[in-house]
From TrEMBL:
Membrane-crossing residue ranges in chain numbering: 7-28, 34-55, 75-93, 113-132, 153-171
Source lineage: Bacteria, Thermotogati, Deinococcota, Deinococci, Deinococcales
Gene Ontology molecular function, alphabetical: cadmium ion transmembrane transporter activity; ferrous iron transmembrane transporter activity; zinc efflux antiporter activity
UniProt-recorded name of the protein: Cation diffusion facilitator family transporter
Ranges of residues in domain Cation efflux protein cytoplasmic: 211-283
Membrane protein topology class: Multi-pass membrane protein
GO BP field: intracellular zinc ion homeostasis
Length: 295
């Protein structure tokens, strides 16, 4: 967790640096599209701060009021980031819409574009770091921040292309028009972030591939049992909770059944580090003859 928090802190520094560079690019050019790109970078700073706070809360151990821990705090930062993204898109629309009627040519575009490209290169490199580390640490907050920054990079590429076209063709309206397209892309990104994070807050189950891995692992390491049914899963930040019923022969001792449970828990945690596994043992007459059969 300390590693994730350190990355979030560094993300704040990177976001603030990129913000300064993008506003410098806007000041040099007067481009509405570059202004819209700079506005999105404000959201990057806010999102990085939200991720830092969420990771700090998520690192707290379980207590009497939160017996399952605080890992879901990461989802709140991702939802907050989605809301901020939507607000940024609305601010861009407000700035760009009048420009369609009163478009003006950008000034000294080359230097401003070079500054913006440099800022985007920093963003692209940092997005790669966050996505790799977010997957390795199974951190929703870092992944959300990385995906948002990657969207910002793609937006910046589109902005640069649009400003170059506006300058080359003399069609000044291309600049605010592109800013509106940027706003649409940002709205889509914000919706995606909120939808995924709300799924985590609503205890959505694991994806189909992970579910298949869980069932295969259960089937391969339950020797001595008869079947497993009523499998339920959910994510809470980097934690994965797995619950199921284990059917064993009626004459099996508690010690033997417990040994099977220990073996299953160890195998599942090896497959998914940090998983919390709950097993309800049942006698043979409770078998449902469906679910996961023992290989």
């Amino acid at each position: 967790m300390e590693r994730a928090t350190g990355l979030a802190l560094l993300s704040v520094v990177v976001a603030a640096t990129v913000l300064g560079l993008k506003f410098l690019a806007y000041a040099l050019t007067g481009s509405v599209a570059l202004y819209s790109d700079a506005l999105e970078s404000i959201i990057n700073v806010a999102a990085a701060l939200a991720a830092l706070i969420a990771l700090h809360v998520a690192s707290r151990p379980a207590d009497a009021n939160h017996p399952y821990g605080h890992t879901k705090a990461e989802y709140f930062s991702a939802v907050a980031e989605g809301v901020l993204v939507v607000l940024a898109a609305l601010a861009i629309v407000r700035e760009a819409a009048p420009g369609l009627l009163h478009a003006r040519a950008v000034e000294a575009p080359l230097l401003g574009l070079l500054v913006n490209i440099g800022a985007s290169a920093i963003n692209a490199a940092w997005a790669g770091v966050l996505l790799r580390q977010g997957r390795a640490l199974r951190s929703p907050a870092l992944l959300a921040d990385g995906r948002h920054i990657l969207t910002d990079v793609m937006t910046s590429v589109g902005v640069v292309v649009g400003v170059v076209l506006a300058q080359a063709t003399g069609l000044a309206w291309l600049d605010p028009a592109l800013a509106l397209l940027v706003a649409g892309n940002i709205l889509w990104s914000g919706w995606g972030l909120m939808r995924e994070s709300v799924g985590g807050l609503m205890d959505a189950g694991v994806d189909a591939a992970t579910d298949a891995r869980i069932r295969q692992t259960m089937s391969e390491h339950a020797e001595g049992a008869l079947e497993m049914h009523d499998l339920r899963t959910r994510h809470a930040g980097r934690m994965t909770f797995v619950e199921f019923h284990l059917v064993v022969p009626g004459e099996m001792t508690v010690q033997e059944a417990h040994a099977i449970c220990d073996r299953l828990e160890e195998a599942l945690r090896s497959e998914m580090p940090g998983a919390s596994v709950t097993i309800h043992v049942e006698p043979q007459d409770k078998a449902k003859h469906h679910g996961v059969l023992v290989l």
